[in-house]
Amino acid sequence: MTEAEKIETQPRRDLAVQGCVACGSVESRIQFRTTDLLYRTTEKTFAIVECGRCGLLRLCPQPSPEEFDAYYPRNYWFDPSASAAGRMEEAYRRFVLRDHLRFVIRALQGAGESGPVLDVGCGGGLFLGMLGQRGFPVLGLDLSPEAAALAWSRHRVPATAGELAASPIAPASCAAVTMFHVLEHVPRPKEYLTEARRLLRPAGRLIVQVPNAACWQFALLGRWWNGVDAPRHLHLFRDTDIEKMLVASGFRVLRKKYFSLRDNPAGLATSLARSLDPMARRVRGTTESGAARLCKDLLYFALVLAALPFAALEAAFCSGSTVMIEACKSA
After folding, report:
1. Which pLDDT belongs to residue 13?
2. Poorest-pLDDT segment among 91-95, 262-266, 299-303
3. Contact 217, 317 (CB under 8 A)
4. How far apart, in whole angstroms, are the C-alpha atoms of residue 92 and residue 86?
5. Could you tell me which of 206, 218, 212 has the C-alpha nearest to residue 179?
6. Nearest C-alpha neighbor of 266 from the set 302, 228, 214, 230
7. Average pLDDT over residues 127-155
8. pLDDT at residue number 10
């Protein structure tokens, strides 16, 4: 081991000024360095550090609010009605979101509570639109005003833009709160969980989904795993990390699911060929002819299909690249 490698593995206090959000420790050690491999919004280099006490991985340095806005381009959300390709992409998303839908409907049936389903980070509102079509009352919340507006105009989902803590939703009014790929993006995930608990009815359900840093994909690909997604992912949760955080926030875990038809195969495909990822190409503003775009989309879809068996296998061993958890309030 070289001297530089020794330094990289030693605990560092200067890289953890804010401390670990899970246990508060300021001890950490660098695991690797990376940059924005997906959207290329910055050339800045970031470290992924591991908490010296609990092992939670996090991005360092944490972006300032001004930097964070720059890492989420305005065209991150798009109107699928704007092009034939967009309409085809929405049809595909409807298909792969069915397992999310089944997971949430089963949770609602188990809860037996009345009230709306609040989707935090609702984006363009497709998931809530699908849930609303099945007769469930829905509400959306997103930091992006453009996304909230699209949720209403495209799917008739009542949505508002803003922070969860500042939302106008009444306490103890929601039958369920869903957070699909939200907690890894926020600097204080425990506050989101606490606020979700406040909004839930007594038997209400919380459904969270995050990338799972205990997956085989991360073990094999390391910094090239799409779940790292620096600098937008501030924390890299293992399934055990998020369970402990839920318990500490007053929840009891009821059910876990390690496979997502929408996320797991596509995540592996993007890890292996970022230049083919449709969203990344759109955000980067890649110049391409209609024929080139169609060819790249078909190649990406073929790669997603090829990734499906491996994604299903790792999930069968509870090591999927995402974990979806249903929880209720603890007594």
Report:
1. 41
2. 91-95
3. no
4. 10
5. 206
6. 302
7. 93
8. 41
- Tell me the per-residue pLDDT of 122-134, one tens digit each, with 9 for 90 and over: 989 999 999 999 9
**Other Cβ atoms within 10 Å of 228 Cβ, number:** 25
Q: What pTM, to 2 d.p., does this model score?
A: 0.90
74-329 CATH: 3.40.50.150
| Contact call for residues 320 and 242 (beta carbons, < 8 A) | no
Pick from 38-47, 70-79, 170-179, 228-237: least confident: 70-79
User: HSE of 234 in the Cβ direction (CA atoms, 13 Å)?
Assistant: 22
Here the tokens at position 290 are 């209609």
Distances (CA, A) of 181 to 26, 119, 135, 233, 299: 26, 11, 24, 9, 25
- Has residue 9 got a pLDDT over 50? no
